[in-house]
Design a protein that fits this description.
Layout (H helix, E strand, L loop, with lengths): L1 H8 L4 E5 L5 E9 L12 E9 L8 H15 L5 E7 L3 H10 L3 E6 L9 E7 L4
Parallel strand pairs: 3-4
Antiparallel strand pairs: 1-2, 2-3, 4-6, 5-6
């Protein structure tokens, strides 16, 4: 139900990568953040909920292309100002992708965020405005 809800609510932010045989080898799923009336309005923010690429297809640039496709839709279709995500502090490859390739910054650390007790980095990318 969780994935169906995302696909129906924000179809512009769901992208898949397929191999030459049509097998899905990766996906990115994102959403728009719910507005909180108590916060100062800072524009629309998107949030990447999940990014995954099959182990057999990693190091091919698929995750980068999926994220850039999602960013394009966030910025140009849904008019978002920024995008956030969380990543395990131990996931060095993902952190390098987000920071070094895509330009995300670590905003905070969420202690014990994951069910197994691992911390998460709360990361954010602010989109350049024309």
């Amino acid at each position: 139900k969780y994935y169906l809800y995302h696909a129906l609510s924000w179809p512009q932010l769901l992208h898949v990568a397929e191999d030459d045989n049509g097998k899905i080898v990766g996906y990115v799923m994102a959403k728009l953040e719910e507005e909180d009336g108590s916060k100062e309005h800072k524009g629309v923010e998107a949030h990447v909920t999940s990014l995954s690429v099959l182990r057999t297809h990693r190091k091919l640039g698929i995750a980068t292309k999926l994220m850039r496709a999602s960013h394009h839709q966030m910025k140009n279709v849904l008019l978002c100002n920024s995008c956030s995500l969380r990543v395990r502090v131990g996931n060095k490859a993902a952190i390098a992708l987000y920071k070094d390739v895509l330009g995300y910054e670590v905003i905070d650390t969420d202690k014990g965020y994951y069910a197994d007790g691992e911390d998460a980095y709360d990361m954010k990318l602010t989109f350049e405005q024309p």
